[in-house]
Amino acid sequence: MSTGTEGTAGTNRFAPPTAEVADVATGDTELAGRGMRLLSVIIDGLIQGAIYWILTLVAFRALDPASGITTAARFTTEASRPGAVAT
User: Fold this and answer.
1) Domain assignment present for 52
2) I need a surface site. Which of 1, 4, 35, 65 has the fewest CB within 10 A?
3) Summary count for the chain: helices (H), strands (E)
4) Which residues form the domain of 46?
């Protein structure tokens, strides 16, 4: 039975890499304080809120029949509109 590993000279293809990592952190970095983290969370929330608000406006405008951009409005014929005279 063939396992597809012939010719690999016994190496394990699922083994972790053995390369040397040269850019390991030394541990002298300073973490952000509570105030800075709070400010970043507030800014992130405002950005996400603005994006969701814009997407909601676009979605509701697309679903509004008065805007005329729905698929139902595209396929409406002149004869099916109220007050139209069929010829």
Assistant:
1) yes
2) 1
3) 2, 0
4) 34-78
**Residue 70: Cβ-neighbour burial (10 angstroms; 0-12, 13-18, 19+):** middle
**pTM over the 0.85 mark:** no
Amino acid at 29: T
Q: Is 18 within a domain?
A: no
Given its phi and psi angles, is residue 81 left (phi above 0), alpha (psi -120 to 50 degrees) or beta? Answer: beta
Structural domain contains residue 27: no
Residue 17: pLDDT band (50, 70, 90) is confident
Measured distance CA(50)–CA(56) in Å, rounded: 10
Write phi, then psi, for 57 (nearest 5 degrees).
-60, -45
Count of C-beta atoms within a 10 Å radius of residue 23: 4
